[in-house]
Amino acid sequence: MDHLGGCHCGNIHVRLRLSKPPEDYALRACTCSFCRSHSPRILADHDGNFEVWADDWSLVENYRFGTNTCDFLICRRCGVFVAAISEMPAGTRAVVNVNCLNDREQFTSDPVIHDFEGETLETRSSRRAANWMRASVHRE
Questions:
Q1: CATH (domain of 128)
Q2: What percent of the chain has pLDDT over 90?
């Protein structure tokens, strides 16, 4: 099933294809200052697929912090955080903030809080490879 969405101003567009119904997912957030500031509800589905495109890529911030191992896509016009994307040996992978989806109310679980502080780069890469979904970034 496809789930569509994007940022508030309509510059960033996303399509999420999931392997299970929305209510079957355990959403998450973490204790980092970014997540505490944005209050995302993050979804990862190793068997899912994520696509993102923008009307104007110059208005998309690829924000990096911490270990600098992924890009947090934020609209520069409206400030909405839509997804985190990482390049991995197996290809581009992502997690999505379900708050940016048009049918966000179907994702009913409260986010489980995770603390990734002190996680090694190797452990982080392994966790993402095991959990994050395939992603396509359409820049044309």
A1: 2.170.150.70
A2: 64
